Amino acid sequence: MNVSESLTALSFPIGQVYAQDSDNGAICLFSTFIPNDIITVDSMGYVFLTRSLDYEQDSQYDVAIRVSDGELESVHPGQIIINVIDENDHNPVFTQPVFHGRFPENSSPGTLFIDVLASDMDTSPMNGNIDRYEIQEAGLPFYIQNIPDGSAIISNSRSMDYETNRRDYVLHVHAFDSGGLRSLFPAQVIITLQDVDDCGPRFSRAEYHASVKENNPISVFVISLLASDCDISVPFRGIQYKVANGQGLVHIDPTSGQVTAAKSYDFESDQSTTIIEVQAFDRDGGEIYGVVSKYWMLPNRINGLPFRLNSSSGELFLTRALDYENGDTGFDITVVAIDGGSYLATATVSISILNENDEEPYFLTEEEHNISIPEETFPFSIHGLPDNVLFHVKAYDSDLLEDGYLYYNLSTYEIFSIDSSGYLYLTVPLDYEEKDQHQVTVSVGDGVFVARTTISIQVLVGNINDHPPVFHSCLDGCCET
């Protein structure tokens, strides 16, 4: 009997069993052989559930029953096998109610920075697998990527600036199982945008002008400089000053930017204008951003690919020689990088393999051929070939694309020519009386390699009666004058 786990106890029969007694009019009484809390059988043989079943606890039950006519019992017990049909009666539940994630400002779109995971107590794949995740809020700069293993990754859809954007976001994520049930309670994802030292300090003016009387005391005030930093976080906005090329003329307070004289000036020797360069730089909080500590390729996407990634330097190496002709024309590899903290980034490396001319051409035609044609027949046609074509030479090159193009050459072009397809043409009519046979040699190359063999074609010229007789001399009085 197949019974859904959603069926309630004693609601209606799940089946009926039958028995026979050879005594006329005997009434069969059914009962379970061993007391159980699963089914009960009434006097008519109707089977009822005594409690609800749970597919996740047990997917099959085997119950022995017996039958009696009031006096005698059956010798052999009957058997009822109940197969429990799984129902999608469990909603997905997240492994934790709140997920936290942090990512630096200016992170490239698609940066991976937080994983979410839900599970489902339904055990059958149809109902228990997590099919997808959805972010409840719309319009926020985040999206969720569903992973085949049942988890998901939340990424940013655009780069964000700590100084101008919100710094905290709260997302609510729902999980859906394969049967379409949604999680009753969404997971809360709290995302914090982190400040990065991405704003350099700026002086309030590009140039400052100051004057000092000669014979001044050392450390006399000269001018006060001011620089600012648009970074908001305290570690990044603190300004420090230093003199880059003051030549010992001034001293600057590294914190306040106040410039004082480093010596007593003399008008007669120091009267020329001196340009002093002052630099301002900010202080960070000791955190290092942008330093990648490890690289790796996603393992479920590189099976069989001929590459190895150095996990420290990010350098990609070949593990075998590539062959364009055997299908090594291009590869897409997903690389993940992680910094010293917990931030991840992915990049797709598209590798296009350039075809090299590494195959020699070779002839498909036999090396020697004889052709007979009558003299003075031009144009002419040999069966199966276009007019004026003597022979078709065939060759092949395993290289693909332009590296596989073939170039045919002849030993002589006075009478014959050959095109790029290997068709050998006659360019002028032949004369038996002038030459009764011609030898032509065909070679082939692809621009780099030349075939190791050649084709030798012997053209035999057939004589025809194409000249009238001519007297070589005349007797006196016999020839017309």
UniProtKB/TrEMBL annotation:
Record-linked Pfam families: Cadherin (PF00028)
Main localization category: membrane
Cited Gene3D superfamilies: Cadherins
Biological process, per Gene Ontology: homophilic cell adhesion via plasma membrane adhesion molecules
This protein's name: Protocadherin Fat 4
GO cellular component: plasma membrane
CDD domains in the record: Cadherin_repeat
PROSITE patterns: CADHERIN_1 (PS00232), CADHERIN_2 (PS50268)
UniProt domain Cadherin: residue ranges: 14-94, 95-203, 204-363, 365-471
Lineage: Eukaryota, Metazoa, Porifera, Demospongiae, Heteroscleromorpha
